[in-house]
Amino acid sequence: MEEEDAAADPYLPYDGGGDTIPLQEIPRRGSNYAMSNGGGVASSTTHLLDFLEEPIPGVGTYDDFHTIDWVREKCKDRERHRKINSKKKESAWEFTKSLYDAWSGWLVVTLTGLASGALAGLIDIAADWMNDLKEGVCLSAMWFNHEQCCWTSNETTFAERDKCPQWKSWAELILGQAEGPGSYIMNYFMYIYWALSFAFLAVCLVKVFAPYACGSGIPEIKTILSGFIIRGYLGKWTLMIKTITLVLAVASGLSLGKEGPLVHVACCCGNIFSYLFPKYSKNEAKKREVLSAASAAGVSVAFGAPIGGVLFSLEEVSYYFPLKTLWRSFFAALVAAFVLRSINPFGNSRLVLFYVEYHTPWYLFELIPFILLGVFGGLWGAFFIRANIAWCRRRKSTRFGKYPVLEVILVAAITAVVAFPNPYTRQNTSELIKELFTDCGPLESSQLCQYRSQMNGSKAFTDNPNRPAGPGVYSAMWQLCLALIFKIIMTIFTFGLKVPSGLFIPSMAIGAIAGRIVGIAVEQLAYYHHDWFLFKEWCEVGADCITPGLYAMVGAAACLGGVTRMTVSLVVIVFELTGGLEYIVPLMAAVMTSKWVGDAFGREGIYEAHIRLNGYPFLDAKEEFTHTTLAREVMRPRRSDPPLAVLTQDDLTVEELQSVINETSYNGFPVIVSKESQRLVGFALRRDITIAIENARRKQEGIMLNSRVYFTQHAPTLPADSPRPLKLRSILDMSPFTVTDHTPMEIVVDIFRKLGLRQCLVTHNGRLLGIITKKDILRHMAQMANQDPESIMFN
Asked: Signal peptide position in this chain (predicted)?
């Protein structure tokens, strides 16, 4: 009986409480009565005072390390859009403003694409030059790298061209001799000196000016796109320092790539340009649409793969990806790729990094080694994720993490000392992958192509048939095996250092080395055992059947897939990257195998693992929730907890409201009709309440500590001598999401994921029981996975 009385007493004036409007009220309100949704939007019959109330500055904004309210942001944007549309017929100026508003989305992604392409070109050129600086210098023009320095050279063979007179090694400059043990030691010393200098400079710049510029940036961007706010992560300082230190980190020879950080750089550009347009700067949800397009542009310039970039944004980083964002991502990727192609940083007039041309088709039997490479990729991915997370956790929990500069110097020194003697680890990782992908033609000078040529009558096979491997190939195989072990160990310790570090290129290098080794092994098997039933049908003696470079390409895709668990976007990136369109089936087979094998050891990729390690509040859409718990088992307060902190709609004073805020650390409070009825009215955010009280004290007279606060439409009846009341209805969310206490958690988790909620209120027969926040869900999921729920929370 008490519930019914409190809900709809016909003799009480209706004040916004309860769930029903009493029948007596409907004629008075008129047929066009509409509830406000809490964004400060007045209904059509609102009191005159509400029209005079201007929006409170600061309400609706967010603190650092808080999650945005997607629903509120979308409502805000719809209201802004309605306002512009209703005004556009009033004058030519308003019509121009509406056009500008409609085009601002395309304009911001165009600017982002232009900036991303230009910065990527700059980074590529600078990294190539600084990488060659470790080995020598161009006397004719200091700013040329080794390859550019020797372009004008007249030497005929590749070996001579690489030793052109314009390019001097450090030993030639300092000691005056190019050969001998003395020159080798001098070159070795200079290589280590430059590597340590670059690494030291990079880590110092990051530590002093922009701590957020370290790492790959993709885990944080995934979290930001899911609605989390990390102020400064996409700021101008981070952009500037990341661009400079990325060049230094790549040039230092550490086992890292520039591809992941380029996504961070592009997102910084997107964030900075979005501030030029009020549509995006004042709406966090709209801003995330620009960031989704920016991440597509980042991958587009990192690999020269515009379509792969769009799919990467869709599959890997974006949380909310409407069709409009798909078009804009496509456009941003196109603009960025066009700018990069105009700059032509690789000097080959191609957009792609590792363009390959294979002349032979692949055969059905070859799917067996391709699938084995997929298994290797999955095993490597699972091993790498576990080892790297264990090392990063150790770094966080021990004193070692307090000395980031020392750690970077140590890793750079070990890398340089071990890498120099082996030509495959000494060279730039991108160059190594290019060499491993390349097919052996008559013009190749690589050790990998030193086969013993055989004479068939009077004609030598110059079109690369299968031939017996020469001593050069065998020594290259040994060096590649050592390079593989070195890369595997060093990548585990390098990813997570306090310098910009991407994972795409090292993972691809590991796969490419393994793939090339397998490719050469299969090729030699086909040569020596061409009469086996496997080869008999399709591989004639002396014919060119096996392409080792293709195995390297498949291995690279498999290893990258094993680490990141990407599928569709990865296959598209690899075939755009290499131009190897007819090899899609081998790539798909290897990538799917690596994903299945990796998933057998753990469902999350490296980025999800780092998100969990850092404790960011991220609900992964790929993760399934299979437990049979109910909302009441997860909600707070629990049985042992103090009661839920709530606000009543019209009987609190300013002093009491402030004491509730000061005594608790919650981000918001449910508003109820009264303590007795516990009927829900709405939800008010802590930040909004604080701002509204400060604003009222500044702008309204007579607001005191004992002023009554009310969230209803009309002021409560007060004694004549009481101070002026404070109306806070405009900051009240009148339509908070609620579930009943018997709702399965599976549905609650789904609602949180799909609507991007921050909190959800739990009711029973209309009475407020408790609250479920995003963190409660993450704690519950950790508990169900037998983990310590507090250890995963962001601090």
From this structure: none
With respect to residue 624, please indicate whether it lies within any of the assigned structural domains. no
Q: How far is CA 358 from the centre of its chain?
A: 33
The residue whose two tokens read 């997607």 is 70
* Cα 388 to chain centroid, rounded: 18
The DSSP line for 293-309 is HHHHHHHHHHHT-HHHH
CB atoms within 10 A of CB 517: 20
Dump strand ranges (E) for 674-752: 680-685, 708-710, 726-727, 738-740
Q: What is the pLDDT of residues 737-752, one digit of tens each?
A: 999 999 999 999 999 9
Residues 319, 402, single domain; the answer is no
Q: Which of 343, 377, 407 is the last residue of a domain?
A: 343
The bridge status of strand 738-740 relative to strand 136-138 is: unpaired
Closest by Cα among 214, 511, 238 to 375: 511
Q: In this structure, what CATH number is given to the domain that contains residue 537?
A: 1.10.3080.10
Three-state SS at 463: coil
Cα distance between residue 395 and residue 312, in whole Å: 30
Q: At what angle do helices 606-614 and 367-397 cross, to 10 degrees?
A: 10
Strand partners, 647: 671
Q: What is the pLDDT of residues 550-577, one digit of tens each?
A: 999 999 999 999 999 999 999 999 888 8
Cβ contacts of residue 423 below 8 Å, gap of 6+?
Answer: 447, 479
Alpha helical stretches, state H, 344-448: 367-397, 404-419, 423-426, 429-437
The backbone torsions φ and ψ at residue 44, rounded to the nearest 5 degrees and listed phi first, read -65, -25
Q: ∠ at Cα 700 (697, 702), nearest 5°?
A: 80
Nearest residue to 669 via CA among 655, 684, 687, 651: 684
User: Shortest CA distance to 753 belongs to which of 777, 769, 735?
Assistant: 777
Q: Give me 344's structure tokens.
A: 């032509």
CATH code assigned at 668: 3.10.580.20
Whether residues 666 and 715 fall in one domain: yes
CA distances (Å), origin 691, targets 60, 735, 759 = 10, 21, 21
Q: Give the HSE-up count for residue 715: Cα atoms under 13 Å, Cβ half-sphere.
A: 14
C-alpha–C-alpha distance, residues 377 and 554, integer Å = 10
Please identify every stretch of the chain with a pLDDT value under 70, giving residue numbers as ranges.
1-55, 153-162, 348-353, 441-445, 452-467, 533-544, 791-795
Range of the domain at 331: 126-343
In DSSP terms, which residues pair with 215 in a beta bridge?
500
Q: How far apart are CA 570 and CA 598, in angstroms?
A: 15
- Give the SS3 label for residue 719: coil
